[in-house]
């Protein structure tokens, strides 16, 4: 669980801090978690806020407080949360996770058929930037990697560059991975503006779903998107930006998958990483399932040919969101455990599998939409 809710007191705008259950750990950067209001008002005033499961409002202090929270058990010492006037307690950073991210905006200029987080047409940038400006100085300096996602982060405009600059200022050793559709970079000035920041730790993950404009544009539901994305990729290459190509595998993208691999090698040889990704059954996907769903077993021939073609030319290739039992052994070396820990599950059918700890598992939202050939494996991976 990444969020919970209670009733807010003395909160008019978002406040961000590290949670603690230790009353002696008082500071303005810490939010005290408590079941009852046993701490003295004078001592509590040294904390930035109080989070409580108590059902009644505290009457002895006037600092930001969220009471009546449904549960706070999911929060670990040092996790960073934001509180707002609605009583929301949103986890912004988890100290024991390597899969933390910043939500730049929920707006998007595409409307992909399989979008896992459908866009919302509202100006959320001031609210989210307020949170990020408070959050980034609190994140531990040894954070190994941080994601930036949306919506479409580049719709922040100048705030996009501010956000990346803040990451660079406060977390200079942290790898940054930004998910973007790449379309805004068709404006050469926008790509050059990013190049001026000189962020070698930044990787842009950009989707390309077909080698033909009509199919890509249909999948992302945005006329002209293919041309904008390809021009953006070349503009980014001109400023030496690190790039990852992301390909979601489904009924529409699979038929031209091998042709897309050839297109990438011939036209985008500068990309650092190519990922082939399994479908996530959430967001828009359930509404478009008849257009999208194909048993992964049924596209293994195309996937094998595409991956081996790119790998033969020494391009770095990965397979995300797939299970080892449905992948040909020749593809096991490319499989990665990529599903975020908070939504990663394994099925009952996986019990007894000797390769479970090496397997990518499933999205918690998969339901019955998984391969009909899921079965435990009783052998070791090919070295």
UniProtKB/TrEMBL annotation:
GO terms for molecular function: catalytic activity; iron-sulfur cluster binding; metal ion binding. Its cofactor is [4Fe-4S] cluster. CDD domains: Radical_SAM. SUPFAM superfamilies: Radical SAM enzymes. Residues 94-320 form the Radical SAM core domain. The keyword Iron-sulfur applies. Keywords: Iron, Iron-sulfur, Metal-binding, S-adenosyl-L-methionine. This is His-Xaa-Ser system radical SAM maturase HxsC. The lineage of its organism: Bacteria, Pseudomonadati, Bacteroidota, Cytophagia, Cytophagales.
């Amino acid at each position: 669980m990444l969020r919970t809710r209670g009733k807010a007191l003395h909160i008019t705008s978002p406040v961000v801090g590290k949670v603690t259950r230790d009353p002696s750990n008082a500071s303005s950067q810490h939010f005290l978690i408590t079941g009852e209001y046993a701490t003295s008002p004078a001592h509590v005033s040294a904390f930035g806020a109080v989070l409580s499961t108590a059902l009644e409002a505290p009457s002895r202090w006037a600092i930001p407080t969220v009471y009546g929270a449904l549960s706070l058990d999911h929060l670990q010492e040092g996790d960073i949360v934001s509180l707002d006037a609605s009583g929301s307690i949103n986890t912004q950073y988890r100290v024991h996770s390597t899969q933390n991210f910043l939500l730049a905006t929920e707006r998007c200029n595409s409307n992909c058929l399989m979008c896992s987080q459908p866009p919302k047409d509202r100006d959320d940038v001031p609210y989210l930037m307020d949170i990020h400006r408070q959050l980034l100085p609190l994140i531990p300096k040894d954070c190994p990697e941080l994601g930036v996602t949306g919506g479409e982060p580049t719709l922040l405009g100048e705030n996009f560059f501010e956000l990346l600059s803040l990451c660079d200022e406060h977390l200079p050793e942290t790898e940054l991975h930004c998910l973007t559709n790449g379309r805004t970079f068709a404006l050469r000035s926008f790509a050059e503006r990013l190049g001026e920041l000189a962020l070698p730790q930044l990787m842009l993950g950009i989707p390309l779903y077909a080698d033909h404009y009509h199919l890509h544009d249909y999948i992302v539901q945005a006329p002209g998107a293919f041309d904008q994305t390809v021009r953006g990729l070349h503009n980014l290459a001109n400023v030496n930006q690190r790039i990852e190509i992301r390909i979601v595998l489904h009924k529409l993208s699979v038929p031209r998958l091998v042709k897309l691999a050839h297109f990438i090698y011939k036209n985008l040889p500068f990309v650092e990483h190519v990922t082939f990704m399994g479908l996530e059954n959430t967001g828009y996907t359930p509404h478009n399932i008849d257009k999208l769903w194909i048993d992964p077993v049924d596209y293994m021939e195309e996937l094998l040919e595409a991956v081996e073609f790119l790998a033969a030319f020494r391009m770095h290739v990965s397979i995300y969101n797939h299970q080892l039992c449905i992948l040909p052994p020749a593809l096991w070396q490319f499989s990665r455990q990529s599903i975020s820990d908070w939504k990663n599950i394994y099925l009952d059918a996986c019990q007894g599998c000797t390769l479970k700890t090496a397997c990518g598992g499933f999205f918690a939202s998969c339901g019955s939409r998984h391969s009909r050939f899921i079965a435990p494996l009783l052998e070791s991976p090919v070295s």
